[in-house]
Structures
1.
Amino acid sequence: MNANKVPELALFPLTAEVNHQGHLLIGGCDVADLAEEFGTPLYLFDELTLRHKCREF
């Protein structure tokens, strides 16, 4: 999907995807596993997205 066609996708990092179990992955990490390990709320930063946004600036 393209973020231009679905504006809500712009809220997700560039590396966001859904695995075969239906879990959200960010930077290749399963968000459900991270929430289980560290609790919630959990703030995640995706390095690829941060670098991309800095270059755009």
2.
Amino acid sequence: MSHDSKGTLNDLVSAAKSDGIDFIFLTDHPRGNIDTIPKGFKGNYDGVLIEPGSEKQGFDAWPLDSTILDWKIDKDTVAKNIVSKGGIIFYAHTEEPHNDTGTLGLIKS
């Protein structure tokens, strides 16, 4: 999975099912400025939907489609591109202050 978590796909699916969870959104740190989605699990596993995403520049991104994210461009453009194609953006690490000018909260598809 990631250096931030432990477990197998079976562990994830079993835990989700036992807790009545229908979907899991995963994030991982990109390995450089170009990020390929998906890098790992994507799809329906025994009734649990898993969507992979990426975390960088203060937000989590789930393109909801196979894609390449170019983290060299500014985060506002990355966010707008993802949302315009039906993806989802959230702040990462909400326990930390964000100096965002509002783009993530104002994006409309």
3.
Amino acid sequence: MASRLLQVMVGLMIMTNFSYVVVRTDLRNYVPFLFGTSFGLIFLFGPLIYFYARAVIDPSFQWQKKYGLHFIPYGLQLLINIPLLIMEKRYWLEFINSFLSGTAVIRSIEIFIFAVQDIHLLIYLVLTYMLIRSVNNRQGNGNVQYLIPVSLRLNWLKNLLYSFALFLITVFGLYIFILIRGTYHPVTNYVYTLITSGIIYFIAYRMVLSPEILSPDFAQKYKAYMPFSGEEGDVYMQKIKSLMLDAKLYTDPELKLSALAEQIGLPSHQASKLINEKFGKSFNELINEYRVEEFIRRVNHDDFKAYSIYGIALEVGFNSKSSFNTAFKKITGKTPSSFKT
């Protein structure tokens, strides 16, 4: 559920940005009404953020039909937008041209709607903050732990909340700007698009870096975990090293923690804790470290002279250029090309 809510959220922001692309390109001459599809979408952001936060930190959360009531404000906005969306093409072009020239007058009803939109988003951001704070205060009171710790979930949600708080401050500033002017101005589009693009890139970056945190599950949980110590921990650690060095398990781009855990004979959550304790890093960090080391070994080897840098990256287990570059820079502090002679 968390991943679906996040996907919808990002999709709506992309949709908003695309509608602004329409007015700045020749698309406005063909499908000018697409500019109006983004009107009122801000009413969806608040509920989506709140329910996404619940899905990330509340193991009992299940989507219920009654939650759809939270989206009624957008439904009302959509009803208001209908006459605009079915407007004739020539009227749309007149409206867009006046918008771009900065002469489109803002009406009283629009001033009211913008104010309601800002207040609506603020309410949901406050509710999300209170939810995060209440969970944070309860940490340590129970003995149930999760494969993705609650603390990591909360840190991610706080960062996302700060991003949307900045978004709200920006939107409110733009509201004051056009209120003082009395007319719309295209610069508001640029700023709005810039801040939504920033949030999209931030989420995408975290998705590459730590995808498991953005959509964690509660399926694998455990109690009173006993740390691996002495010979038992060393035996499992050697098994992992053997699978990496001899079998080169890391070259499988689809390698999951569950597959490694099965090979060494441990449940996934215990394998994760073993890696944390014995290697001092997460599963993804460990695998990427082996992949980077293998890349460095191969990059100047005669057998791989005909390969491109990205081609070698694929051979050692990376499945995308972005994940390869991110991991390589994080581990070595250098770019892949600096190792090629």
4.
Amino acid sequence: VNGSLNIEAGNVLLSGAPVLHAGNRYLDDWTPSGFNFSTINVAANKGLQIGQHTSVVADIKAAAGSHLTVGYNSGTEDKHKTRKCTLNDNTGDVNCTSPVLTDEQRNQLPPSSLTGDIKLAENGSLALGKAIWAGSLNADKGTVINMASDSMWQISKNSHAGSLVMAKGAAISFSKPANGKTGNTLTVQGDLQGEGFFSLNTRMADNVSDRVIVEGQASGNYILDVRNEGEEPVQDGRMLTLMSLNNPHQDFSKVNVTLAKGHVDIGTWRYRLTRDAGGYKLYNPVIPWTPLEPAQPDNPDIPRPNNPEQNQANWISYESNTAISNFTSHFNLLNKQVDSTQQHLSNLKPDESGLWFSYQVDELNYGNKAYRPYTQKLMSQSLGSDWALESSLGLFQFGGGLITTISHGSFDEGGRTNDRMTGVNLYGKLTLNSGAWFSGYTGFHYIDYNLKDASRSESSGKFGYIMGVGAGYQWDSPAGFTVQPQTGLNFYGLPSQRYSLNNKVNVSEPASHTVQYFAGLNISREMEVGGLPVSPYTQIMHKVNVNPQNTIRINNNNLNADYENNRTDFSLGSHVSLSDSASLNVKGNYTIGGGLKNSKDIWLEMKLKF
């Protein structure tokens, strides 16, 4: 319509058309209708309904006492109940009813839509049923807006409502401001009641946000969902207000305001909600480490949110936590490339040079105050061979092994990594006639990193290195036990890398060089079981990383990414001589300490003697 619709008497229904079938019958099928007006003017005490299967584009001006209904609505007031009007093709009579849909019928009903701004005068009312309304509201204080559970209001610019009642499921979403420098505001001049969902735009770096302001009394439960854009915020202790309850007589025991996920991740950091006087604000205490209570309901019947400890793990974003977890998992991966060779050397007997194969499966449960817990599953396979040379000092055994380790990491909130390392270790062991022994090894390993999320970050063509030395002594006790203490040093090196995660954070990992001390004790006893020589043993191994401290840069922020400081492995195993030329070694480990909890692995080695 090239012009305005003026409603000066009665009530007007804009609706889709029920389809007329043979026999002058109407079923439950409709022909959708669309209406365009420059303006719809509703006179005082008159009504407008935008019914089912309808879309309307128009600005609406409603005078005092008028009533508006958008979308299917089955409210308690008759004036807001949606009409369905049909035409009798034989008589020309129109029949209007207010049908009540079942939940299934309502769920299948498409939402009606209204695009345009509404001006609502004193004592007017607006009921949003199953509908999507995109526009602003300029309503007098004495008006009432009711939103059904399946209604959506998309606010296009600053709006003023009278009293606002939201059924559970009703949602209000703020459109992005055109200039991005100022937020939109919804001011509720009367009371706010019900259970609603507000979706707000923020630019934390510019201290800009959409905001809900309530000047009357607020009661009920409300969820705030935050969508942030812009640069990385400066961590200067500022707080960003999302919702303000300004009535000096506000009873906070009657209102509960929370964030959609309990937190908001913006760039590097994780923000939570606190209440400062009547304002609900985003804050992060890491810098300047200001302790604040999260927003708490005064009603004891409502569960109170926990106040997390002020350590880094609780206050970094999902992306930052994923990046740090990913970084530390690389050390675990390289450590497995050491384990197979170190265990082989530790258990290598003077009369057992030959071809060997080992297989190891680990499950690490890992985490500390720098990042949230994660699980890493690793599978290592090694194939090697060693030879022996006699000397006046004792027996020198040397060889090499090809090692491949595959890692599957499951990080907090769904981040995943699938990494692989493949390399060659060269080693040697000198066993003196006195029972003392010395060992050493070195190796280089090719790296394939694959971090999976909403986006994928892959890196290959880089190398890590490992090397180490060890020493031990084998003492055969009169009681038939063999006692073998050992100690040594390991050296680990990983390359630097840069990548972007989810287009939200830029990660810069430094090259890391780690020194590790280890010391352990192995006690075994030889016996026969079923005619086979068997040597069960138990072992304890303690490892200390001398320099576990690491820092990675995320969006130019330095974050702690420390490795484990120390760990202790408890092992039970058995060496079985299957024949003169074949042997089997099986061991199970349980690991504690250094952020590792309930971590375990199984190691198996098969050897064919030359």
